[in-house]
Amino acid sequence: MSTTVSSPRPGNPQGGGATADPSATALSAKPVGWKTPVLLAVFAVVSLVFFGFLAPNKTASFGISTGSDFFQLPALEIDAAVGGIVLSVLLLALAAYAVYLKLKNRPAPGWLTVTFISLFVAAFLIWVVGGARTPAISLAGLIAGSVTLAVPLVFGSLSGVLCERVGVVNIAIEGQLLGGAFTAAIVASMTKNPFIGLVAAAAAGAVVSMVLALFSIKYLVNQIIVGVVLNVLVSGVTGFLFSTVMQANKAQFNSPPGLDVIDIPVLSGIPVIGPILFRQSLVGYLMYIAVAVVWVGLFKTRWGLRVRAVGEHPQAADTLGINVNLTRFWNVTLGGAVAGIGGSFFTLVAIDSFTKEISGGRGFIALAALIFGRWNPIGAFFAALLFGFADNLQSIVTIIGTPVPSQFMAMLPYLVTVLAVAGLVGKSRGPAASGIPYVKG
Amino acid sequence: MPEQHPPKHAAEGPGAADKHDGTASHASLAEEETAAVVSVDTAGGAMEPSAVPATAQSGKLPGGPDTLLRRIFTGSGMVSVLAVLLALVIGGLLIASTDKQVATTSSYFFARPTDFFTAVWNAATRSYIALFQGSVFNPRGNGVAAQFAPFMETLTIATPLITAGLGVALAFRAGLFNIGAQGQIIVAGILAAWVGFALHLPMGLHLLLVLIAGIVGGALWGGLVGLLKARTGAHEVILTIMFNYIALYFLRYLLNTPAFQRPGESNPISPILDPSAVYPQILGTQYRLHLGFILAIGATLLVWWILNRSTVGFEFRAVGANPKAAQTAGINVPRATILVMALAGALAGMSGVAQVAGTEKVLTDGVAATYGFDAITVALLGRSTPWGTFAAGLLFGAFRAGAVQMQIQTGTPIDIVLVVQSLIVLFIAAPPLVRAVFGLNPRRRKPARTAKSKQAATTGGAA
Questions:
Q1: Disruptive mutation site among B418, B420, B449 for chain A (greatest number of A CBs within 10 Å)
Q2: Where are the alpha helices (DSSP H) in B174-204?
Q3: Distance between CA A342 and CA B422 in Å, rounded?
Q4: pLDDT digits (tens, 9 = 90+) for B176-231
Q5: CA angle at residue B395 from B393 to B396, to 5 degrees?
Q6: Distance (Å, rounded) from C-alpha A388 to C-alpha A115?
Q7: CB-based contact (8 Å) between B297 and chain A?
Q8: Rounded to whole angstroms, how far apart are CA atoms B280 and B357?
Q9: Are strands A76-79 and A136-138 parallel, antiparallel or unpaired?
Q10: Interacting residues of B70 by C-beta distance below 8 A, sequence separation 6+
Q11: What is the ipTM metric for this complex?
């Protein structure tokens, strides 16, 4: 009895897609669908009615400069009704263009969707701020805050990119973030050194990932199951140690020194861009570096080519002499380390101590950002920014007092994600072999 | 996870090759076994594997032919027991690692190691005894009724776990990973609670309407995911996670509106349900155990019947085993997807009803607690079979009920239950690992061949 087992053909483009729905697999041959144009048209009409015709008769004010900029720009004053109508007309035009393309049987290009979303968000923002009790917000603060809130999301979705590109579904991002946050807190507290905490966070994320890799690659347990269970496990272990060790001696184990914001002189004074790019914590700078490195690594290096080959067609990669399972193991581990660094953001930058469930479901948002960003590091970065923006907008909107209940604002990222995965951003297809264990045959 | 190499391998390879052969046979065994599993899962690679391995669906494992005794010990039932044992041991070590007595005795470990091991043993067993007394039988209770009160509490807590777990299990069998039980419980809870406190109807009819409202609510929320999946091909894992959050925020919004908030209350809490709208307590008023538990037994029977005796159940299993083959055989796959998600939602909806009409009697934003997520582990532990899920629900119900007592009596945090639960599922999902830990792997015949192929793989990888 030898191991003559017919191995899966996961790279088969007809059968190995991310979806089990057979009708969705042969999209290349299908004519362009009505879904995107219709959705765009619906949103444009919603925008015209609500943000245009039903706009509050006030002026929305958006502050651009912060006190520390070199030169002060005047605040942007927009009449809510006029702004809403102008933007809605632009949205309608874009929707019409999508319909025109559909009639020519051409798919809507990516820039169209991106522009549409940006304009829609702008129209929404003018409407919300215009309807508030104090119709003025600081745009610079809003954007800078969004970037800050997006930091763990970006790291989490990069972890997802690294894992899924190599063919392993990573549902355990939440656990990796939480593990990183906990380890960063406890190690930084004990060593009184946030940098050691940062390294330890990466190691903790990597350990969580290694368990994922071990079970999904060696024991071929379903990757989604391992991910879900790992989230529970990390939540249990950190919660247990928090209640016993950290609570007993908070000074020694749960008072990590924070990573300070590093202000790059001169450059950080540039309005709007300065605070985003040049006034970040170490973790924030690492985020930009990580996005760039992962993108270049995946798409411009030999390593990246191998990784993508393993994720798309492991048998072909194996034939060419790439050790599929080893490549998967180390990439998943690397992904965990990246997510672990993201987790350290919670305890070293955002808040100065660990609490139970400090990651609060952001690992799942990161997962959504990854899909929204179409498994591309840069796409995931912008998707994460969008979620950070929604998160930040929610808290700001609660402060300035708008008619929209804050719960609906909080719901927004999730609704957007549902729309995204249901096809607003076009067909988003993951790596072909993602989720399928590879058995050499 | 430390992997122990049992000494029996030494008998197979002579002298210096001992260690190498042992390792190789180990790895190759895991490979061979798991390869067989994958082959079953993917119909020889023709399709994407379903969310749940075929082994988990059938409850059988491909094991090597060996002696009868060995077969008993390596069977899946034994693996489940050993997995639970292993998880309890690791949980016990975690408890001991934070125990003060253990820390004290470890300082003079080399002088008197027995003290240390006694302390470890005491720390772990003390917690587990408290867990047992809080979940099954409390010998210090005043009279038989009080002694069995913990067990009744276990059954009460198990009720929503069983029904939600059944929902997750049913979807598993159709190859769908339903993480949305949490949201389905919430939506069901919203509808059931509203019917319960806003309408005032006669006895019997009122409760029936509450139940129907909850089931319909859950079915709609679950069915919507099925519809989106069938129509757009969106992945149900993402959809259900997102729907959980949407349901939660919607509930929080509702609890701040006049229609749902209790009059004169500033906290987000609903009015108490009418007495005619709540489940009767089936074993007297001294226990919280309610009619929902009987319904959970009924639901288990129903799911068993659907899966094993009905046409739709056959279709679900066919779709779960191989959607393409099912499609070819004339099964309407999108319809089955929508239907199974709606049914899964309906079952989770019963948990929502059990919460608002059974144990809580009000609607708060904690209505679903973590039942929806625990349901996933319950279904996994139950290997997606109806009665397996029922048993797993009882076990996890016991953990939850006992954990409260354990925290009160010994100060061990409730979180340890999460650790033990997740470890159990992890170990059960990887039988080769459990058998390796206990040294129960079936003997291998041909270690040499795989050793060679492994070597080839390594050298090939370097090219």
A1: B418
A2: 181-198
A3: 24
A4: 988 899 999 999 999 999 999 998 889 889 999 999 999 999 999 999 999 999 88
A5: 65
A6: 18
A7: no
A8: 9
A9: unpaired
A10: B440, B442
A11: 0.80
- Nearest by CB: A407 against B239, B252, B323: B252
CB proximity B234 to A under 8 Å:
yes
In this structure, what token pair is assigned to residue B360?
């809580």
| pTM of the predicted protein model | 0.81
On chain A, the residues whose CB falls within 8 A of the CB of B336 are: none
Sheet strands (E) in B333-423: none
- Strand partners of residue A138: A63
Structure tokens at B437: 């830990």
Q: Report CB contact under 8 Å: B38, A220.
A: yes
Residue ranges covered by each domain of chain B: 75-135+413-440, 144-392
Count other C-beta atoms under 10 Å from residue B108's C-beta: 11
Write out chain A residues lying below 8 Å of B101, CB-based: none
Q: Which chain B residues in 378-397 lie under 8 Å from chain A, judged by CB atoms?
A: 380
CA atoms within 13 A on the CB side of B127: 27
Q: Does B37 touch chain A (CB under 8 A)?
A: yes
Q: Model confidence over B271-321: pLDDT tens digits?
A: 999 889 999 988 878 888 899 999 999 999 999 999 999 999 999 999 998
DSSP state of A30: S
Burial class for B202, CB neighbours closer than 10 Å (0-12, 13-18, 19+): exposed
> Mean pLDDT, consecutive 10-residue segments, chain A of 441 residues?
38 39 42 75 87 79 71 76 87 89 81 84 84 78 88 95 92 94 94 94 96 91 88 93 88 87 80 80 92 95 94 92 93 96 93 88 88 87 88 80 78 81 64 81 68
Which residue in this structure is represented by tokens 């290694």?
Answer: A210
DSSP A108: P
Residue among B34, B98, B417 minimizing CB distance to A220: B34
Contact B244, B187 (CB under 8 A): no
Sequence length of chain B is 463
Residues 6+ apart with CB under 8 A from B205: none
Angstroms from A356 CA to nearest CA on chain B: 10
Contact A293, A309 (CB under 8 A): no
Which residues on adjacent β-strands are paired with residue A137? A62
User: Which candidate from A18, A240, A408 shows the least CB-CB separation from B94?
Assistant: A240
Would an 8 Å CB–CB cutoff place A50 in contact with chain B? no
The tokens describing B94, both together, are 């975690």
- With beta carbons less than 8 A apart as the criterion, state whether B214 and B277 touch: no
Q: What is the CATH number of domain B144-392?
A: 1.10.3470
